[in-house]
Amino acid sequence: MNKSYDAAVIGGGPIGGQVAKKIAEKGFNVAIFEEHKTIGEPLKCAGLVSSRVFDFCSFSKEKIIQNQIKGAHIHSPSGDILTIGGDKVHAYVIDRTKFDHKIIKSAEEKGAELYLENKVLSTQKHNNYIELTTAQKHDIQCKILIGADGPHSKIRDRFSLPTPKEILKGIGVEVINISLDPDYVEIFVGKHIAPGFFSWVIPTNKEGSEARIGLCISPEIKEPPRYFLENILKNKHNLKLFNEIKIIKKTGGAIPLGSLKRTYDDNLLLVGDAAAQVKPTSGGGIYTGLLCANQCSTVASEALEIDNFSSTFLSKYHKLWSSEIGRELFLGMKFRKIFKKLNDEQINKYVKKFQNQKIIDTISNHGDIDYPSKLVKPLLKKNPSLIKLLPSLFKE
Residues 353, 388: contact at Cβ < 8 Å? Predict the structure, then answer.
């Protein structure tokens, strides 16, 4: 089959779906190419988002939300627990598969065409269009190609765009027969728990009897993520929490960190995980990805309107998303650098130091999972002694 489109979006996740929907709304011919046979599968996300995510959605959120989260229990390597939040809803647990389906359906309703099991095998750039060949032997021509194909983006690699600074390795399981406070997520940190990042337990129903358990580790760690997941489930501090659980699904994935310095080329834009538009402090990429998806679709639509697909024009997209979220992602990498250099003894010290009502209240009042840097100034202003705890690299 030979077909021509104004825009071809590679990747049928929520970010690719959002881009396709917004471009299709403008009356352009759009196609989405997804390598898997089912939207939303396999699951590769913890599914914890802020309320801002729903501002991008035209569908009802009622059947998407599984649970509301008011706070977190942060477990130190030594077993101490710091409890933050609890006073109001800070985040929502969503059914990612349903969420993805809804966004893709919205794109199709606007006129976008969806091709499942259509991995892109080859790409070739011509004078003013790009030609694709897919696994289903489709030969596609498009004026603008949008790579929304995840952390290991083939589109990014084929056009020699920059790569993320690091790609975390992740693993997760969905479990039943667990007993959690449904208002709180459980966070575990430590070099022997999730080196270079953290582990989480997210209650996925209002009874606290079902959950997603997962973790990510730095790419340089030799042991596989499975090794650390097994350690967490067997840890003496966690035996009561995990004693009766039953695993019903296993998941895996990767998180790209360190946003790209260039997310465009002639006839080409990158968005979402493919562009590493991910929060380095939490690994969350849905809000940032949707935000950038809207900007991506705006510039792509403008390019189609004036028939200008040069990298000079498309660079407008990079400037737009950088001005909106670039500083936050940059600061997130700075905070990550600090975090990675902490040893378990220092982490234990932080957790004990933060067990102070004034500090906890400051975090609850100013903490924002989408913009964590907003917490720094009020935290240091109300608790100036905290600066003494910062490692020397903070002063560099």
Answer: no
Please give the Cα distance from 61 to 48 (Å, whole number): 14
**Does 25 share its domain with 126?**
yes
Q: Are the CB atoms for 315 and 322 separated by under 8 Å?
A: no
| Same-domain check for residues 18 and 148 | yes
Q: Is residue 382 domain-resident?
A: no
DSSP state of 290: H
Tell me if 112 sits within 8 A of 29, measured CB to CB. Answer: no
Res 236: pLDDT = 63
Q: How many CA atoms lie within 13 A of 381 on its CB side?
A: 8
pLDDT greater than 60 at residue 373:
yes
DSSP string for 29-49: -EEEE-SSSSTT-S-----EE
Q: What is the pLDDT of residues 95-152, one digit of tens each?
A: 999 999 999 999 999 999 999 999 999 999 998 999 999 988 889 999 999 999 999 9
Residue 123, strand partner residues: 132
Of 391, 279, 367, give the one whose Cα is nearest residue 331.
279
**pLDDT 10s digits, 137-194:** 889 999 999 999 999 999 999 999 999 999 999 999 999 999 999 999 999 999 999 9
Q: Residue 292: is it exposed, middle or buried by C-beta count within 10 angstroms (0-12/13-18/19+)?
A: buried
Average pLDDT of span 53-61: 91
Distance between CA atoms of 368 and 323, rounded to whole angstroms? 19
Give, for 3, the enclosing helix (H) or strand (E).
Answer: strand 2-10
The pair of three-digit structure tokens given for residue 66, joined into one six-digit string: 């599984």
**184 pairs with which residues across the strands?**
71
| Shared-domain flag, residues 158 and 173 | no
Total number of domains constituting the chain: 2
* pLDDT tier at 390, thresholds 50, 70, 90: low
> Mean pLDDT throughout 320-337?
95
